[in-house]
Amino acid sequence: MSGHSKWATIHRKKGLLDAARGKVFQKLAKEIMVATRGGSPDPNQNAALRLAVDKAKAQNMPKDNIQKAIEKASGNSEGANYESVRYEGYGHGGVAFMVDCLTDNRNRTASQVRSAFTKAGGNLGTDGSVSYMFKRLGSIVIPADYDEDTIMMSVLDAGAEDFEKVENTYIITTPADTFVSVREALEKQNVLEFLECELTYVPTMEVTLDEEGCEKVHKLVDTLEDLDDVQDVYYNLKED
């Protein structure tokens, strides 16, 4: 994983968040509610909820919003029953896409996602058609406000796969099974601010396009992320 590529992606995500913060918070709340209903309302006793809460905090979601989502899901009020659905396909230039959704209506979500791909000149594929091009990894980004050697040794000892400094951040990549231990190692070093802290999918092979091609891919990403049912979009365009 290229540090500069990752940095470009972070900047892009931040721009989208600033432009549509309310919508992003709604999606994060949905993820928190689903995780809460699947186990304990205590993040320390529910790994999925802890992950969802960490992701929300990294996006600067207010603590009150997080707590309200947990309380709503753990209360007696009836709510929508969401299920996880993944769509795989190809965008412009053969760029591979995985689109993770939480939906209470599969038909609606499938129609919306298919329409987005079709209008962008892409197409949906079958399950497994592109997922082999991605690897499940933990991604943690923190401000470079801490001693570099201390942080690097702590995370590597805890099982991190890669550590690098890019501009004013430390970017840490972990295997999925050591993500929690690496995060805990950072917390022991009194790291309080996480710019990103989530399990994600990173491409093992990337597609390079010209500027016009990149714009077309990013337009499809924006369209997909604007759909209410879409939680995460992964793609293998090489970002500069």
Write the topology of this structure.
Elements: H1 3-19, H2 21-37, H3 47-58, H4 63-74, E1 83-90, E2 96-103, H5 106-119, E3 123-124, E4 134-143, H6 148-157, E5 162-166, E6 169-175, H7 179-188, E7 196-203, H8 211-225, E8 230-235
Antiparallel strand pairs: 1-2, 1-3, 2-8, 4-6, 4-7, 5-6
Give the gist of this structure:
This protein is α+β, with helices and mostly antiparallel strands and 240 residues long.
Largest sheet: 4 strands, antiparallel
- State the CATH architecture of the largest domain: 2-Layer Sandwich
- Rg of Cα set: 18 Å
| CATH fold group of the largest domain | Alpha-Beta Plaits
Distance between the termini: 12 Å
Q: Report helical residue fraction.
A: 40-55%
Main sheet strand line-up: 3-1-2-8
Outline the structure in words.
The chain has 240 residues and is of the alpha+beta class. It folds into 3 domains: 3-74, Arc Repressor Mutant, subunit A (Orthogonal Bundle), CATH 1.10.10; 83-132 and 205-235, Alpha-Beta Plaits (2-Layer Sandwich), CATH 3.30.70.980; 133-203, Alpha-Beta Plaits, CATH 3.30.70.980. 45% of the residues lie in helices and 22% in strands. It has 8 helices and 8 strands, in the order H-H-H-H-E-E-H-E-E-H-E-E-H-E-H-E. It has helices at 3-19, 21-37, 47-58, 63-74, 106-119, 148-157, 179-188, 211-225; strands at 83-90, 96-103, 123-124, 134-143, 162-166, 169-175, 196-203, 230-235. Strands 3-1-2-8 form a 4-stranded antiparallel sheet. The mean pLDDT is 89.
